[in-house]
């Protein structure tokens, strides 16, 4: 039986990470205690959090976190509350999922213009993924046998070694990106599509760099 509207509980995505259904408990109340930059630095060192991690958690740019750490930017009350809630829950549970940024669209067809700005965050579905991993949304149908338009893939930018049969996001000399499967003999980046109009990319004919390996959709790639 679903709860009635008058009993519904609305929480932000961040609160949803820290609250168990309706009961947020005392941990969320502790979020309203004060936190300063020195405390933040200590907690980051204790839990292995980086400035990039804090930027993702707060939804601000890394340079703002850097300025905050250097005393050139004030830690806002709302940010301190969010950080306090995060570290309280991390202390109690010790197993909060890392937040992955959703960085926009990647073309699974012709080259398209890079990535859009960060559009949001999602909890990492796999603790073995690099903490630098990010999420992109597919557009186009050149990989629809693997990931259809509108579906999300998780890309690990620390895994750039080409392995035959695996999937990669690559960028050309103009900064445009696409998503393809790497194959050998001969080396190539090929579409996996129901649309025969899409063509294969061959190193030497097209100059590109590896952005990272696509590791996950709903299932392992």
Notes on the protein architecture:
The chain has two domains: 83 residues, 434 Repressor (Amino-terminal Domain), CATH 1.10.260; 118 residues, Umud Fragment, subunit A. By secondary structure, the protein is an alpha+beta fold. It has six helices and nine strands; from the N terminus they run ααααααβββββββββ.
CATH architecture field of the largest domain:
Ribbon
Q: CATH class of the largest domain, please?
A: Mainly Beta
One letter per element, helices H and strands E, the order comes to HHHHHHEEEEEEEEE
**Individual helix count:** 6
Shape: elongated
Query: Low-confidence runs (pLDDT<50, min 5 residues)?
Result: 1-33
Helix content: 10-25%
Specify the structural class. alpha+beta
The name of the CATH superfamily of the largest domain reads: Umud Fragment, subunit A
Briefly note the CATH topology name of the largest domain: Umud Fragment, subunit A
| Count of separate structural domains | 2
Radius of gyration: 21 Å
Mean pLDDT: 79
Number of strands: 9
Estimate what percentage of residues fall within beta strands: 15-25%
What kind of sheet is the major sheet? 9 strands, mixed
How far apart are the termini?
37 Å
Question: What does the secondary structure layout of this molecule look like, with pairings?
Answer:
Elements: H1 13-18, H2 25-29, H3 37-47, H4 51-58, H5 62-69, H6 77-93, E1 99-107, E2 112-113, E3 120-123, E4 134-139, E5 152-156, E6 167-172, E7 176-183, E8 188-190, E9 208-216
Parallel strand pairs: 1-4
Antiparallel strand pairs: 1-3, 2-7, 4-5, 5-9, 6-7, 6-9, 7-8
Properties at a glance:
single chain, alpha+beta, 434 Repressor (Amino-terminal Domain), Umud Fragment, subunit A, 2 domains, nine-stranded mixed beta sheet, 25% helix, elongated, disordered N terminus
